[in-house]
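Journal club side-thread
Mid-discussion, someone asked how the predicted structure for our own chain would compare to the paper's figures. Pasting it here so we can look after the session.
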Amino acid sequence: MPTPRSQLFETLAQVGRALGNGHRLELLERLAQAEASVEVLATAAELSIANASQHLQHLRRAGLVTARREGRQMIYRLTDERIVQLLNLLRDVAQSNLAEVERLVGRLFTPADEDQPLEAKSTQELWADLQAGRVQLLDVRSEDEFQAGHLPSALNLPADQLDQLLDRLPRDQPLVAYCRGPYCVLSHQVVERLRSLGFQVTRYEEGYPEWKAAGLPVD
């Protein structure tokens, strides 16, 4: 007969099992930006709506997400902002101990011009630059993610609308692009495109959820 101790560990293991799927981690990354419908989440994780719904049910049973009905839609959100810290810890442990993670990250962010690597600003560097008024931030996430919260005084420049919004960008100030997190390629793509057009631009190595989790100001 299971003891209370073994039952406790088995219950804790539900969280581990819920996290043990790449698609679910992608869904959590998107929900770390803002609550979203199943349809939006399915698109973000490149899943069918039925498949996304199944993964969300696993996350819900593990207490990682909650949902409410809004008309005919189910809207999901994280149950606890500490989940962002949990994901960051998972990432840090994996990068420190799994050589495959470092190799894949290198492939993910290989620049088109390998002679000009895309350096990234740390949280501390970016905060210092913002306080000194040295940079203009570019939030390259979707408009709904931006409206739910963003870094201070950032301009919303969705990656898929970049060329239509170029006239909004200052050319006399360094730019820093950011997106959903350390594995989000949107800011990398925007930086490469803007550099090819002559802008002085780099990227933030983290994302909106990590900035907020660090206790730094957001709008």
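Post-session note: The chain has a mean pLDDT of 92.
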